């Protein structure tokens, strides 16, 4: 199975550098330019299936694609919910909660919304239980940075902290291949 993972294109300017989570926001002018470029780069691909986060910024990243049919929008590919911290910057969160960053685990635990355990479980189940059972060969997934990083941490044997240190720019894509062995999916 071949997966092409795409981070949605750049969001509206006032939401840049914020913990956006489930906030349903659109793309910036630059985001639309990125979306056009992305559609051009992938125009010759023939995907068996397309899965996309149901949030507007992910949907709008597919706006210029003419070669995609039957896109499946799902909340299973949403970014982690940050609860009352959604839409805030790092500094705003520090000020409102009177906390400072000590470690990745401490920081993630201090923030609101979906627990990191529930988020990781959601990503694990989607990629390593749901997708392999569909028997598709070539899949496009348009989602969020946190989803991609969590997915990569699960089977690249790296910590979430290390995965979240990796930079994934708006509109970036990454292609991976899977091999099914003994009812377990192995990254190859």
TrEMBL record:
GO terms for cellular component: cytosol. GO terms for molecular function: fructose-2,6-bisphosphate 2-phosphatase activity. Substrate binds at residue 57. CDD domains: HP_PGM_like. Gene3D superfamilies: Phosphoglycerate mutase-like (3.40.50.1240). Pfam families: His_Phos_1. Keywords: Hydrolase. One of its GO terms (biological process) is negative regulation of glycolytic process. The active site is at 8 (tele-phosphohistidine intermediate), 79 (proton donor/acceptor). Transmembrane segments: none annotated. SUPFAM superfamilies: Phosphoglycerate mutase-like. This is Histidine phosphatase family protein.
């Amino acid at each position: 199975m071949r997966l092409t993972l795409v981070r949605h294109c750049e969001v509206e300017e006032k939401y840049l550098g914020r913990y956006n989570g489930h906030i349903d926001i659109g793309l910036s002018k630059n985001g639309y330019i990125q979306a056009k470029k992305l559609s051009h780069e992938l125009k010759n691909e023939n995907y068996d299936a397309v899965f996309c986060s149901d949030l507007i910024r992910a949907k709008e990243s597919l706006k210029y694609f003419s070669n995609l049919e039957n896109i499946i929008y799902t909340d299973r590919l949403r970014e982690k919910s940050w609860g009352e911290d959604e839409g805030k910057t790092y500094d705003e969160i520090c000020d409102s909660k009177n906390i400072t960053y000590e470690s990745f685990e401490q920081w993630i635990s201090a923030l609101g919304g979906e627990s990191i355990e529930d988020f990781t479980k959601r990503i694990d189940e989607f990629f390593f239980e749901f997708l392999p059972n569909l028997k598709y060969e070539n899949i496009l997934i348009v989602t969020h940075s946190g989803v991609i990083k969590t997915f990569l941490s699960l089977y690249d044997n790296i910590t979430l902290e290390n995965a979240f240190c990796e930079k994934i720019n708006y509109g970036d894509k990454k292609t991976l291949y899977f091999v099914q062995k003994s009812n377990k999916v192995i990254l190859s």
